[in-house]
Amino acid sequence: MGDRSLIRPIGVVLEGRLELGVELLLEGRTIAELRPHTGVPEPFVVSPAFVNAHSHLEYRTLLGRVEGGDFWEWIQRLLPQKRRLTEEESLQGAALAARENRASGVAWLVEHSDLPVSVRAMRAAGLSGIVFQETITLREWESPEPLRDRVAGIARSHAAAAEGIPVFPSPHSPYTVDPSTLQWFGESGRPVSIHVAESVHERRWLAEGVGPMAELHQGLGHARPEAQSATQYLARLGLCRPGAQWVHCCDLDDEDVATIARGGAAVAHCPRSNRALGCPAAPIRRLREAGVAVGMGTDSAASAGVPDMFEEMRLALELSRELGEPLTAEDVWTMATTEGARSVGGPDWRIQPGSSVPLIGLNLPDARETEDLVQLGRPEAVFWISGPA
Question: Most buried of 72, 107, 207, 342, CB within 10 angstroms?
Answer without folding.
Answer: 107
